[in-house]
Write a structure and sequence with these properties.
CATH class of the largest domain: Alpha Beta
Order of helices and strands: HEHEHHHEHEEEEEHEEEEHEHEHEHHH
CATH topology of the largest domain: Rossmann fold
CATH architecture of the largest domain: 3-Layer(aba) Sandwich
Helix content: 25-40%
Strand content: 15-25%
Number of domains: 2
Distance between the termini: 24 Å
Structural class: alpha/beta
Shape: globular
């Protein structure tokens, strides 16, 4: 998409107070969190933005199945990779027909004809809406991966005007934009002494992130590890555990919140005071010197926004492999194996951090592309 066209079109929407809808899913945090960040920023700019979650259309039984699937993916990376290969780009069979009718009616009453779509799973519903009300909608598909993720399989809206907005572009080996939190919203906390690493497995706790611990615990690193359920937590004083609340889910789109994170204390109790921050996970990112994780799009965005090197673990699917290639080629990350061969060089990570800081000055955030704003 041409930057100037995007600015002009969306600035016109703001001036005329035309509503927009941000369509996403809370199941995939790498989609949910960037979408929520953008929504909050657009609201602050005076945009009539509506934040809508796919899961609000699901029947209760299907929501339970998703939670069970999430646990299986977390427990078995091999199973998760195999399941991803047969993933469908449509889950419309999980939707309640009554809820679909209600949301279409709501969009029509609010005269919403402009959508920012963060998940391809919305394709069928958008198709139905445009046909039902004969609207000529403008649809921006916001891709968080450098090549299309599985949810975009079969995404086709016919005659609707679709603009592809790809933040990270593998084909052109470039970074077009990123989504940043409101910098003034974070707590000022005392940073840990020494060199801090934040290790996690994305929103679902997927991948080989636990396997690298044995290579790191005897080195002089402060290790902060995201846990996804109680059994992830071990009695090891060398690791600081932070539990992502496994029971969290947003209660309605209008009350969308960031997932709570609590620090696991030495006695095993959870200190939820970390949740007092605006975006508790990003608070941990800011306090770290580098991240170790699989190359999900949300993690790329976090690292670029916070100016943190990403030490890359095994990718989850082809789209994440493209992410890894792009990040290494741009000089924003390094594979764990290469970093290990360097003797876990802090100097290498410092050079990566300097490269990100330099390039960030030339890249706009997505809300700046929309409305030419600066914090």
């Amino acid at each position: 998409m041409v930057e100037r066209e995007l600015i002009t079109r969306l600035d016109s929407l703001r001036i005329n107070n035309r509503p927009i809808a941000i369509l996403c899913s809370y199941v995939t945090l790498g989609v949910y969190i960037p979408a929520l960040l953008l929504h909050k920023k657009l609201l602050k700019l005076g945009v009539d933005s509506h934040f809508i979650l796919l899961e609000e259309l699901f029947d209760t039984e299907d929501l339970i199945k998703i939670k069970e699937l999430k646990k299986m993916y977390h427990a078995n990376f091999r199973y998760a990779k195999a399941a991803l290969k047969i993933a469908s780009g449509s889950n419309s069979k999980s939707f309640s027909s009554a809820k679909i009718d209600a949301i279409h009616l709501s969009w029509n009453e609010k005269r919403i004809q402009h959508f920012l779509v963060f998940s391809g799973f919305w394709g069928d519903l958008l198709n139905e809406y445009t046909k039902k009300y004969n609207h000529l909608c403008v649809i921006d598909t916001i891709h968080m991966d450098s090549r299309s993720a599985p949810s975009w399989k079969g995404f086709n809206l016919g005659d609707a005007k679709v603009n592809e907005v790809r933040l990270f572009d593998h084909e052109n080996q470039s970074l077009q934009a990123y989504i940043s939190p409101q910098k003034s919203s974070f707590n000022r906390r005392v940073k840990q002494d020494g060199f801090s690493l934040l290790i996690h497995g994305g929103g679902w706790g997927i991948g080989t992130y636990k396997s690298v611990l044995k290579e790191l615990v005897d080195h002089e690193f402060n290790i902060n590890l995201i846990a996804y359920e109680a059994k992830d937590i071990e009695n090891d004083a060398r690791i600081n555990y932070h539990l992502l609340n496994p029971d969290w889910k947003p209660i309605g789109s209008q009350n969308a919140s960031f997932p709570p994170i609590g620090k696991v204390l030495n006695n095993g109790e959870i200190d939820w005071s970390e949740d007092d921050s605006y975006y508790p996970y990003y608070q941990l990112v800011k306090e770290s010197d580098a991240l170790i994780s699989k190359p999900g799009g949300g993690t790329l965005n976090d690292c670029f926004s916070a100016i943190k090197p990403l030490i890359l673990l095994e990718a989850f699917g082809e789209h994440e492999q493209y992410n890894a290639e792009l990040w290494i080629n741009l000089g924003y990350g390094i594979s764990f194996d290469v970093w290990q061969q360097s003797g876990f060089s802090k100097e290498l990570l410092r050079q990566i951090r300097e490269k990100i800081a330099k390039d960030q000055q030339k890249i706009k955030t997505l809300d700046q592309l929309y409305y030419e704003t600066k914090e």
